[in-house]
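[job 0412] stage=complex_fold ligand=coenzyme A status=START
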Amino acid sequence: MELNSELLLVEIADRIATVTINRPDKRNALNNQVLDELRVVFEDLQEDDDAGGIVLTGSGEKAFAAGADIAELQNLKKKGGERASGKGQAVMSVIESTGKPVIAAVEGYALGGGCELALACHLRVASRSARFGLPELGLGLMPGYGGTQRLPRLIGKGRALEMILDGTPIDAETAWNYGLVNRVVDEGRALETSITWLKHIINRAPVAIKMAIQSVHAAYPNRAHGFHDEARLFGYLCGTEDSTEGTTAFLEKRKPGFRNK
Ligand code: COA
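[job 0412] stage=complex_fold status=DONE, emitting structure tokens
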């Protein structure tokens, strides 16, 4: 696949690969092209001996990523919604199963699919400006990139349901208290801190790192059923009038009026 270097920037220095989502004018929203490129880049970096670890970040100070691209969700309907969720889940799984440590460096908003993307990384460094949230229910949708499966495992069912049902983004300190992020740093320092931390981590034995990541993931077997259900339910919601109304209202910058019961 031909990479559109404008959308995803990849740089390798001192065995650290930095992958930057570069759509700052759309708050780094994950459109299909970004998802496709993330998949290719992570598969390539997995094989690249020059890269010992990966930092994933967003361009600009406003957002890590503000979720799936709402314009692309607007007219999906049921089958299209199921497919879109399955595709997002697959990309997140490629990132999660990378045999090299992956750190999300979060400045600003990590919302919806952007929050789910951070959850798929092995570690998360947040700046004090970071805001984590799952606003999908306000669009007539639900998290569909593995968030309903990964978030409860990371922070517990009660807090996960709080974030999903309430939808109000939490700040970096709350995210740290919840165990959602590993480190909180001053504004503008997330990338630099992630790189320094990763340099320490990748000095340890590479094969041991890979086996340890694999072994920790083995603690969560049989996830296929949960992911399958998430995609099916996301697809169901894409078939409702409320999701059309919710996504359209966002793009038209107005409040939605939901009608489905
Ligand atoms: N999908 C598509 N476009 C998005 C987007 C998304 N998830 N998030 C932001 N954008 C676009 C906006 O439509 C706007 O486009 P425009 O300039 O053409 O009007 C641009 O990015 C800037 O967004 P704006 O809302 O003006 O920026 P802000 O700094 O005031 O607010 C957010 C930032 C992240 C709080 C806000 O954009 C937001 O709530 N985004 C949606 C989050 C969401 O619901 N994600 C879940 C998706 S399933």
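The longest helix spans residues 77-96.
[job 0412] exit 0
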